[in-house]
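Researcher: I'm preparing a figure for a lab meeting and need a structural model of a single chain. I don't have an experimental structure, so a prediction will have to do for now. The sequence is pasted below. Please return the structure as tokens so I can convert it later.
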Amino acid sequence: MNLRQIDYVLAVAEEENFTRAAERCHTVQSALSHQIARLEQEFGARLFERTSRQVTLTPAGLTFVRHARQVREAAQRLEDEMAAATGEIRGSLRIGSISTLGRLDLPALLAQYHRRHPQVDVQLAMRMSDVMMEELRLQQIDVAFLGVWPGEPVLGLDARLLWEEPLLALLHPDHPLAALPQLDLQQLAGCTLVDWPAGSGPRQQTDMAFAALGIKRRVTFEVNHADMLVDLVRAGCAVGMVPALGAGEHAGLVTRPVLDGPRRRVYLASHDSPTPAAAALLALVDGYLQLVPDQASA
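Model: Understood. Here is the structure written out token by token.
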């Protein structure tokens, strides 16, 4: 068995078609089929069920693919580590991030990263923090920018605290409470509110703050992206809460500090043994944040 045969099997498993798999591997179908047949003979088990209409994995094939992906990832990691030993960072970098990073300009950071390491392919996805923590534990992503409430543990991950900040009330300028210099949670509980979905990380930040004071509230609008939360406030539909460090980006709206309001901590999390590409990003973030003044409110 060799890596080329592993690549052939993985290509067929993912394409579910021998012709497309051969094209993807830049070989002819007969050569690909021959190599897979040799593997099946070696293991004494068929890896694929072939019909005129489809190609599916057998139980043995499913087992092979699960372990083959681990072998391929380990081989790629070895190649990347050897390249890093000679001063070249390459490979891929899978980044997850929350949608609100007020103190960190992520596009500018990634542009700087790309200038330094043009051989790295970067994949960026916006997700909820609880989803990204699970993806990190399963090694489906390499690093993640997480936003969690101060009491939430970040277990099983190498997580560095970047900053802590309060959440501010975000209001339409015509809202009656916009005239006040400071608000409290009891006042907000009487408003039509917009927040993140129940059970999500950012929602728990606000839920716990209200619950700590025994205040009941009703969330009328639930959204899964910061832009939609801001748009609903801008339309005059509701009052929301946003991180302090990004509050200045919402032109035309009003932000107010909230007495006993929720806070959040922003972490950069990774695996215990980051890839060279991930380690390069971690180092870059450290240097980047040293140049950015801490604007978080106490």
